[in-house]
Amino acid sequence: MPFSLSRRWIGDMLHYAQKVPLVAGEGPIRVRAMEQTRRAIKKPASWNALLIKAIGMASMKIPELRRAYLPCPWPRLYEAPYSVASLIFDRMFQGEHATFMAPMLHPERLSLEKIQNKVKAWQDDPIEAHGVLRRLVRNARQPRPIRRLMWNIGLYWNGYFRARNFGTFAVNTVGALRGRMLQFQTPITVVCYYGRVSKEGVMDLQFAFDHRVFDGITIARARSEMESVLNNELLAEVQNAPS
Predict the structure, then answer these.
(1) Residues in CB range of 78: below 8 A, 6 or more apart
(2) For position 175, what pLDDT does the model report?
(3) Which residue, 10, 52, 114, 207, shows the most beta carbons closer than 10 Å to its own?
């Protein structure tokens, strides 16, 4: 069988992910109040939207989360002026389940409703309706040398271009299938997988990050900040959202 377009862009992503010295870890956050509030609302904000905004807000206090390693034309770090969430989601494309990746600019400035509507639109609308999805498909149609050249330029040369097109962080989950990840591959500085909320109100977060950019203590700080944001600012936003 020839590679489908979706297998092509996953293959390209993995090619560059293998070059990143990732370190992975896992830790819990306590979100009992948020989960109880969500259960009392008819159409609550999804955990996808909540985690996207929580990491975006955390990155405003922890700028290391907005940094990336750029090797060309000389090794250096770039710090983006705002966060960009690279959302990873599954949808049907050309008769098969395909994993798409789409950047969302400065989610910390958006309402949970806008974040959720954008995520839903990416998953449900025709591919042609969204430029970020059309671009992914269009680039995957190119021969491998051209695709790899575009990935090289996008990831390695210009920090601002990299942030806007690939994201400063990625969010993913297999929690709905009662699963958790054991190995990570990503070309982005940091990726977060989140699990289901337990009966005790605890959610496990898994992080993988580029060790050239920051150390494990930064992820511990980020997890603590996300817990605080979810239990304060975002809890208030969910409670005050129109029913």
Answers:
(1) 67, 68, 70, 159, 160, 162, 163
(2) 53
(3) 52
Tokens coding 63:
């700028």
Structure tokens at 67: 């940094």
* DSSP letter for each residue of 28-56: EEE-HHHHHHHHTSSSPPPHHHHHHHHHH
The domain spanning residue 102 has which CATH number?
3.30.559.10
- DSSP code at position 26: E
Instruction: Tell me how far apart the alpha carbons of residues 136 and 101 are, in angstroms, rounded to a whole number.
Output: 8
Q: Which residue has the tokens 């994201």?
A: 167
Q: What is the tally of structural domains in the chain?
A: 1
CA dihedral 224, 225, 228, 229 (to 10 degrees): -150
What domain range includes position 202? 5-240
The SS3 assignment for 158 reads: coil
Q: At what angle do helices 216-231 and 32-39 cross, to 10 degrees?
A: 40
Tens of pLDDT, residues 37-56 = 999 988 888 999 999 999 99
Total residues belonging to the chain: 243
Per-residue tokens: 39: 């259960």
Q: Are the beta carbons of 189 and 210 closer than 8 angstroms?
A: yes
Backbone angles phi, psi at 95, to 5 degrees: 80, 10
Can you tell me the distance from the alpha carbon of 105 to that of 91, in angstroms, rounded to the nearest whole number? Answer: 21
CA dist 218 and 224 (Å) reads 10
Q: Which residue has the tokens 């498909």?
A: 137
- Tell me how many degrees the CA angle 113-223-102 measures, rounded to the nearest 5: 45
Structure-token pair, residue 95: 């008769």
Report pTM: 0.91
